[in-house]
C-alpha cells in the first residue's frame, strides 16, 4: 500500500513481514525482501542499488557450504548468536552481535558461513550492486555496540570516498561499499524517536525481527513513521522523497526496536 507521510512530500510503500518470500528449511529459517533463490517476484527484485536483504536464522552446527560470488557487495549484520566465516582470501572469523562484515566480491570469491557454538545465529544478509565491475575482492569488518546505537542513528556502511570511511580491513567508522548506499542502524527505546534526514531520493527501512521467528502478522516492536505510517518487526518500508526530507522513526511499542535505514540512489 502507499501512504503519504503527514506534513511531508515523502511517499511510503509498506511491505508487511508476512508477505516476504522465504521458507523454513529446518536448518535455515529465512525471509527474503527481494527475489532470491527459489522465491521470484518481479514486483520485488531490487530497490536502487539494494538487491538482497535476507533475514536468516541458522541452526547450530549447520550453515551455508562453500559457494561462489562475484560482482556484488555482500555484508552481514549480526543480531544474535555467532557466525563463522571462511573465504578464499584467507579470512577466517567468528562474528558476534554488533559485528558488521562486508565482502566486496568483485572478480570472484568463495566463502562459507556456519553457525558457531551451540546457539542459533540470527543475521541479515545484504547485497548491493557495485558501481564498478571487475574490482579486486576485499574483506572488511566493523563493530558497533548496542550503546552506540541506543536512540540514535549510527552510520555503519557508506560509499568509498565518503567522509570518515577508510578501506582498512578493521577500523572505526562505517564499512566501505562500492555502491551508492549508506546504511544506518539504531535501537530505539519505547516512547523514543530518531530523525533521519535523506541524503538521497530513496530510503529503505527494515525493522529487525528480534522477538523471534514469526511467519504470520508481525508482532514485537512497533514503529510509527512521521506520525502516520505504522509498521512492526519484519516489516519494510520503501520511501521516495527529496534530499533533506526528514523521517521521524518513533517507537510506539513497549520493547526496544532495532531498525536499519538505507539511503539509496
TrEMBL record:
Comment on bound cofactor: Binds 1 Fe cation per subunit.
Binding site for Fe cation: 67, 69, 111, 113
Start and end residues of each stretch annotated as Disordered: 1-20
Domain Pirin N-terminal: start-end pairs: 18-127
Keywords: Iron, Metal-binding
InterPro entries linked: Pirin (IPR012093), Pirin_N_dom (IPR003829), RmlC-like_jellyroll (IPR014710), RmlC_Cupin_sf (IPR011051)
Molecular function terms, GO-annotated: metal ion binding
Stretches with biased composition (Polar residues): 1-10
Key word Iron present: yes
Name the record gives this protein: Pirin-domain-containing protein
Amino acid at each position: 500500500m502507499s501512504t503519504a507521510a503527514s506534513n511531508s512530500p515523502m511517499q511510503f510503500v509498506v511491505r508487511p513481514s508476512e508477505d516476504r518470500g522465504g521458507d523454513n528449511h529446518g536448518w535455515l529459517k529465512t525471509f527474503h525482501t527481494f527475489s532470491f533463490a527459489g522465491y521470484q517476484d518481479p514486483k520485488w527484485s531490487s530497490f536502487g542499488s539494494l538487491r538482497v536483504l535476507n533475514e536468516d536464522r541458522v541452526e547450530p552446527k549447520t550453515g551455508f557450504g562453500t559457494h561462489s560470488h562475484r560482482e556484488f557487495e555482500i555484508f552481514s549484520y549480526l543480531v544474535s548468536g555467532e557466525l563463522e566465516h571462511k573465504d578464499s582470501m584467507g579470512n577466517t572469523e567468528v562474528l558476534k552481535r554488533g559485528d558488521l562484515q562486508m565482502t566486496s566480491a568483485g572478480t570472484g570469491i568463495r566463502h562459507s558461513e556456519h553457525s558457531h557454538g551451540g546457539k542459533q545465529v540470527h543475521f541479515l544478509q545484504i547485497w548491493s550492486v557495485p558501481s564498478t565491475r571487475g574490482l579486486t575482492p576485499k574483506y572488511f569488518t566493523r563493530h558497533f555496540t548496542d550503546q552506540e546505537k541506543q536512540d540514535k542513528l549510527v552510520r555503519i556502511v557508506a560509499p568509498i570516498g565518503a567522509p570518515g570511511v577508510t578501506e582498512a580491513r578493521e577500523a572505526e567508522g562505517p564499512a566501505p561499499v562500492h555502491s551508492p548506499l549508506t546504511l544506518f542502524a539504531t535501537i530505539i527505546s519505547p516512547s523514543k524517536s530518531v530523525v533521519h534526514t535523506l541524503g538521497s531520493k530513496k530510503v529503505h527501512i527494515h525493522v529487525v525481527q528480534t522477538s523471534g521467528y514469526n511467519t504470520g502478522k508481525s508482532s514485537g516492536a512497533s514503529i510509527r513513521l512521521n506520525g502516520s505510517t505504522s509498521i512492526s518487526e519484519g516489516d519494510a518500508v520503501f520511501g521516495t522523497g527529496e534530499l533533506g526530507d526528514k523521517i521521524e522513526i518513533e517507537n510506539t511499542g513497549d520493547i526496544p526496536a532495532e531498525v536499519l535505514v538505507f539511503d539509496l540512489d
